[in-house]
Amino acid sequence: MPSLFISRSTITDLDPMSAAADKYRTLRHKIDHLSAEKQTKIIVVTSALPLEGKTTTAINLAIAYGQAEQKVLLIDGNLHQPMIHQIFAVPNKLGFTSILAGLCPVEQAIKESGVRNVSLLPSGPYPTHSMDPLASVQTTNLLESLKKDYDIILIDSPALLAVTESSEWALHSDGVLLVIRAGMLKEDDMLQAKQLLDQLQIRIIGSVLNDTKPNSKISYYHYTGAQRKI
Ligand SMILES: Nc1ncnc2c1ncn2[C@@H]1O[C@H](COP(=O)(O)OP(=O)(O)O)[C@@H](O)[C@H]1O
Ligand SMILES: [Mg+2]
């Protein structure tokens, strides 16, 4: 992804003709192409480290799917440091954790984003008791039932090497999109993240090189399909 000169998390909606918006649409196309071969309906957006651009990628990819008239659900899977509700200015009192705790029905937790075809499931408050919401069968059941209502489900998650949440989400998904921030790339961290995904037999749908400079030697935008080595 190109560097967003004005840091705007929803650029694909605010400026659909921009180069960045176009790149997110290209990313959508590539994922759609893969879906023809293997079901790719629940995608976790992750990275080795924090601040690589997971949330930015998840949001803009969601908007790009919405623009293609696909019904999208964007889940804030970062239960520790949720951001989606802040960016879209929706409340986080009820969300994923509230559904799991039986505090509200699914319909009450899901919010409209204000962007065409894009719905949001905020994280909800962090669970105070020791339950591990992601390891529960309710999460599997919830995602299975949401799959019937949406064409694509994108899950924004925390960094793989920081907390276990990300790999737990990935186990519920059809694969992960690995975001790598140009200039932040450390080979050891990348290898460690890849090893973790391999050990858990999690499919890497592709990798996205984020925040590249247009005139740098590295490509302006880069997407690597799963079959190639990252
Ligand atoms: N391509 C980009 N160009 C400019 N700023 C970006 C880009 N991608 C992300 N950012 C900014 O970097 C910060 C971290 O991005 P974010 O998507 O929140 O990362 P993560 O979710 O991986 O922690 C945010 O302030 C975001 O606006
Ligand atoms: Mg984030």
Commentary on this structure:
This protein has 230 residues and is an alpha/beta fold. It has one domain: Rossmann fold (3-Layer(aba) Sandwich), CATH 3.40.50. Helices cover 35% and strands 17% of the residues. The chain has helices spanning 11-14, 19-35, 54-67, 84-87, 96-100, 106-109, 137-149, 165-171, 187-199; strands spanning 42-46, 72-76, 111-112, 118-121, 152-156, 175-181, 204-210, 222-225. It has an 8-stranded mixed sheet, with helices on both faces. A hairpin with a 5-residue loop joins β3 (111-112) and β4. The longest helix is centred in the N-terminal third of the chain and has 17 residues, at 19-35. The two termini are 16 Å apart. The model is unreliable at 216-221 (pLDDT under 50). Bound molecules: adenosine-5'-diphosphate and magnesium ion. Residues 54-55, 78, 83, 156 line the site of magnesium ion (MG). Keywords: ATP-binding, Kinase, Nucleotide-binding, Transferase, Tyrosine-protein kinase. It comes from Paenibacillus psychroresistens. InterPro entries: AAA_dom, Bact_polysacc_biosynth/exp, P-loop_NTPase, Wzc-like_C.
Any key phrases for this structure?
230 residues; ATP-binding; binds adenosine-5'-diphosphate; binds magnesium ion; 9 helices; Rossmann fold; 17% strand; 8-stranded mixed β-sheet; transferase; tyrosine-protein kinase; alpha/beta
